[in-house]
Amino acid sequence: MDCEILFEQRGAAGIVTLNRPKALNALTHAMALALSRQLDAWAEDRTVSCVVVKAAGERAFSAGGDVRKLYDLGRAEKFDEQRAFWHDEYLLNAKIKAYPKPYVALVDGIVMGGGVGISIHGSHCIAGDRFLFAMPEVGIGLFPDVGATYALPRLPDAVGSYLALTGTRIGRADAAAVGLVRAAVWSDDFPALIDDLASGEDADAVVAGWTMAPEPAPLDELRPLIRAWFAGDSVEDILARLDLAGAPGPELAAAIRTKSPTSLKIAFAQMQRGGALSFAEAMRTEYRIVTRVARGHDFYEGVRALIVDKDNAPRWSPATLDAVPPADIERHFAPLDDELPL
Predict the structure, then answer these.
(1) Are strands 183-184 and 50-55 parallel, antiparallel or unpaired?
(2) Which segments of the chain does DSSP mark as H helices, in order?
(3) What is the pLDDT of residue 65?
(4) Nearest Cα to Cα of residue 107 among 170, 162, 160
(5) Residue in 66, 89, 108, 137 annotated catalytic
(6) Distance between CA atoms of 65 and 28, rounded to whole angstroms?
(7) Which residue spans traverse the membrane (predicted)?
(8) How far apart are CA 108 and CA 130, in angstroms?
(9) Cα(144)–Cα(155) distance, integer angstroms
(10) Is 215 in the active site?
């Protein structure tokens, strides 16, 4: 049980357990590589009809990638080692998206960043009672990655832009209502659902049989406003609309203004472009962006302020949206000499 990630076969189900509960099951490079290898093996194993991914502990499915490790690597100028994590993580995300067998992610608790990449792209992402989703990367000088360039622009009513720019957390009912998850299932029913999958029953039928009735989604009342507010032509335009709106518009604007200006502009560009990209194109785009972000300023300043020193006072550079050159944002999206091999 000391392993960061556990694998077992139970009947017809290959079962993965993320096993870093004290670290909120944050995804390490070793975990990503191990999961990728095991998925390859199970894809070829005729005795395995589906894969189930779950997590140890009750607080989190996976609260993201191991950001502190990435910060330390960058500070030590070990950029090749740092970049290798994103390279292998993004290839894993693409493997999950194209996996030839049902991939059932049982998501209970916090799911952010890297945890999102190993859950929502599978064929069956299932939300439990404590499900709590967010993509808060712009708050640490990063950007919504692990396939968010593909997934978020495809959400209705500009909800993807809302989530990308604000880092807002949403629960199970909202995630189901906008299509982020395949189904909502009571957490207490997860063991029985796994038993049914292990017996070899059809994954679609099993999930349908345990799916609960739709719950009232708190976000539903706000979605028409989100559609109006976040359909702006720039981050500045969105902020102007929010400033003039009734509650919670000004509160959302204030939250956005605490984020990295460069990250906000990158995220906005992702939301504008991602809807026209294939999954492979989206992942290549993210690899281009992260290669440049890793050599920049704001990622290290954001992690310092929120995770290392915890003073919650990041000093972004540039410090304002109007000081971010459009050419600098375009530079992040430019092709690399060594593209992600997809």
Answers:
(1) unpaired
(2) 29-44, 67-75, 79-97, 113-117, 148-151, 159-166, 172-178, 190-198, 203-210, 223-229, 235-244, 249-256, 261-273, 279-293, 298-303, 326-333
(3) 86
(4) 170
(5) 137
(6) 6
(7) none
(8) 5
(9) 14
(10) no
What are the mean pLDDT values of the chain's consecutive 10-residue runs (342 residues total)?
Answer: 89 98 95 98 98 96 93 96 97 98 98 97 98 97 98 98 98 97 97 98 98 96 96 96 95 98 98 98 98 97 96 97 98 97 95
Contact residues for 182 (Cβ-Cβ < 8 A; gap 6+): 123, 124, 125, 126, 207
Q: Name the CATH architecture for the domain at 1-342.
A: Alpha-Beta Complex (3.90)
| Residue found by looking up tokens 């712009």 in the block | 138
Cα–Cα dist 127/142, whole Å: 26
Is there a catalytic annotation at residue 137? Answer: yes
Residue 316's Cα: distance from chain center in Å?
Answer: 23
Q: Exactly one of 14, 64, 74, 114 is catalytic; which is it?
A: 114
Question: Is 114 designated active site?
Answer: yes
- 68 Cβ neighbours under 8 A, 6+ residues apart: 303, 307, 308
240 closest CA partner among 248, 302, 249: 249
Q: Which of 64, 65, 128, 171 is catalytic?
A: 65
d(CA 119, CA 127) in angstroms, rounded, equals: 10
322 is catalytic: no
Nearest to 110 by CA among 167, 158, 153, 154: 167
Of 201, 183, 190, the closest CA to residue 13 belongs to 201
Q: What pLDDT is attached to residue 2?
A: 67
Q: Please, are residues 192 and 210 in contact by the beta-carbon 8 Å criterion?
A: yes
Amino acid at 223: R
Q: Which of 145, 174, 286, 301 does the annotation list as catalytic?
A: 145
Distance CA 160, CA 52 (A): 26
